[in-house]
UniProtKB/TrEMBL annotation:
It comes from Cellulomonas flavigena (strain ATCC 482 / DSM 20109 / BCRC 11376 / JCM 18109 / NBRC 3775 / NCIMB 8073 / NRS 134). This is Probable malate:quinone oxidoreductase. Its cofactor is FAD. GO terms for biological process: tricarboxylic acid cycle. Belongs to the MQO family. It catalyses: (S)-malate + a quinone = a quinol + oxaloacetate. GO terms for molecular function: (S)-2-hydroxyglutarate dehydrogenase activity; L-malate dehydrogenase (quinone) activity. Pfam families: Mqo (PF06039). Its EC number is 1.1.5.4. Keywords: FAD, Flavoprotein, Oxidoreductase, Tricarboxylic acid cycle. Gene3D superfamilies: D-Amino Acid Oxidase, subunit A, domain 2, FAD/NAD(P)-binding domain.
Length: 495
């Protein structure tokens, strides 16, 4: 462990709060790098990957900026900025490399179908958006990561790529689409459970129905952690000490970081947004749509609410999802409390919250419209992508809760739609706030955590990390291994 704690005893070396993809990724990395360290994972619900990482609580998109327009904003001069798209793509590549390495080593049993090749498409309508998509395609394909991205304005071609987009489409307005055949659909729930199971075989302990309720830093730098047993016949609360704590509790992370009283969390607040999807398992429809199709967000809509029609593979079963339809709730977790938002208010984050509220009235208007939408409105939205949609084929499901980051910034406060890693100055505790691209870039985020919280070990760890993820060191993914994985059906191949 870090030199600052070498001579102090602790119950565990690493305590991970939350049983989602972030904790599973960190457990996998640390368990590989330091097999002698004692690792404990504490999940408040009765099984891992039940909140945001659950396959039906997210869209399952392997976010690589292949189809998401919010990663390629238009500049004032009309040109398209692809900087963020390139970064997101490179970060997702790290995730895929780690997953492939674990699968090839037999360390992800039961998750062979967790990542499946699913083309990523962007579909737009209207002359202005068609022209923007063309400029986006031209800007992206100059980069080697996007060199094979396809573009078309031909409806016949779009019909071959994704027939449901044009079947029964009677209008004659211009349309366009791009396609990346190497996109992926990810069952993050299955992946998380497999990674945690692997961590257990390597010595980690996973506790479910186990809620961290208190964090207090000791003078020697360790953390005293109080854990409550949530089972109906559970044991009394348990107290243990940890050298390092990671709070990967999704929407619950803000509350716990506030309880830790680290100065780095001051000024942070959360803006909760819920969501719903329409889902169908009709075999005839599923067979016609083997792609993830993203469009353009409505005015005032947050990036996570960009509509998309997605092929899904969950626990080996195929389905289609459309959405999300955004909503609002004071809960920070799907199984949270209606008082979550109120309990997060502090003197230090009140000004940022008010400032963000006053400057984002278009978002408030959008959420009100979404919350009050009826079945007919949801069907109209679906039919803008799939004109032939029959409401009898679709059911409405509730997705996971997302908490967007509010923090101090220009004008008093800013609303962020990405993820934010918060670490203490001494590196003894870290937590993750925010949402998309989240799970897809979990590996890059956890590598950032290792660098920031364990700087004295970074040089010693780097060679082994580069073996797990060759592109981390600027190297290329081993083409022979990639092809073997594809031939064997061990997860999906890369691009």
């Amino acid at each position: 462990m870090a030199a600052r704690n070498q001579d102090t005893a602790a119950d565990v070396d690493v305590l991970l709060v939350g049983g989602g993809i972030m904790s599973a990724t960190l457990a996998s990395l640390i368990g590989t790098l330091e097999p002698s360290w004692r690792i404990e994972v504490h999940e408040r619900l009765d099984s891992p990957a039940t909140e945001s990482s659950n396959a039906w609580n997210n869209a399952g998109t392997g976010h690589a900026a292949l189809c998401e327009l919010n990663y390629t904003p238009q500049r004032a001069d009309g040109s398209v900025d692809v900087t963020k798209a390139v970064t997101i793509n490179e970060q997702y590549e790290l995730s895929r490399e780690l997953w492939h390495h674990l699968a090839a080593a037999g360390r992800l049993p039961g998750a062979e179908d967790a990542v499946t090749t699913t083309p990523h498409l962007t579909f737009v309508r209207g002359a202005e958006d068609v022209e923007f998509l063309r400029r986006r395609w031209e800007a992206l394909r100059r980069h080697r990561l996007f060199a094979d991205l396809e573009f078309t304005t031909d409806r016949a071609v779009i019909a071959r790529w994704a027939p449901l987009l044009v079947t029964d489409r009677l209008d004659d307005e211009p349309v366009a689409a791009t396609r990346a055949t190497w996109g992926t659909d990810v069952d993050f729930g299955s992946l998380t459970r497999a990674m945690l199971a692997d961590a257990v075989t390597r010595g980690a302990t996973v506790h479910t129905s186990s809620e961290v309720t208190r964090l207090r830093r000791l003078r020697d730098g360790r953390w005293r952690v109080t854990v409550a047993d949530r089972r109906w016949n559970g044991n009394p609360p348990r107290t243990l000490t940890a050298r390092f704590v990671f709070v990967g509790a999704g929407g619950g992370a803000l509350h716990l970081l506030q309880r830790s009283r680290i100065k780095e969390i001051r000024g942070y607040a959360g803006f909760p947004i819920s969501g719903q999807f329409l889902r169908t398992t009709n075999p005839g429809l599923v067979a016609q749509h083997r792609a993830k199709v993203y469009g353009k967000a409505a005015i005032g809509a947050p990036p996570m609410s960009v509509p998309h029609l997605d092929a899904r593979v969950v626990d080996g079963d195929q389905a289609l999802m459309f959405g999300p339809y955004a909503g609002w709730s004071m809960k920070f977790l799907k199984r949270g409390s209606w008082t979550d938002l109120l309990r997060s208010v502090r003197p230090g984050n009140l000004v940022p919250m008010i400032a963000v509220g006053l400057r984002n009235m278009s978002l408030v208007t959008y959420l009100i419209r979404e919350v009050t939408a009826d079945d007919a409105a949801r069907l109209r939205s679906l039919r803008s992508y799939m004109p032939s949609a029959d409401p009898r084929d679709w059911e409405l499901i509730t997705a996971g809760q997302r908490v967007q980051v509010i923090k101090r910034g220009k004008g008093g406060g800013v609303l962020e739609f990405g993820t934010e890693l918060v670490t203490s100055q001494d590196g003894s505790i870290a937590g993750l706030l925010g949402a998309s691209p989240g799970a897809s870039t979990a590996v890059a985020t956890m590598l950032d955590l290792l660098e920031r919280c364990f700087p004295e070990r970074a040089d010693a760890w780097r060679p082994q990390l580069q073996q797990l993820m060759p592109s981390m060191g600027g190297g290329a993914w081993d083409a022979a291994l990639e092809q073997q994985l594809v031939d064997d059906g061990t997860l999906t191949g890369g691009h």
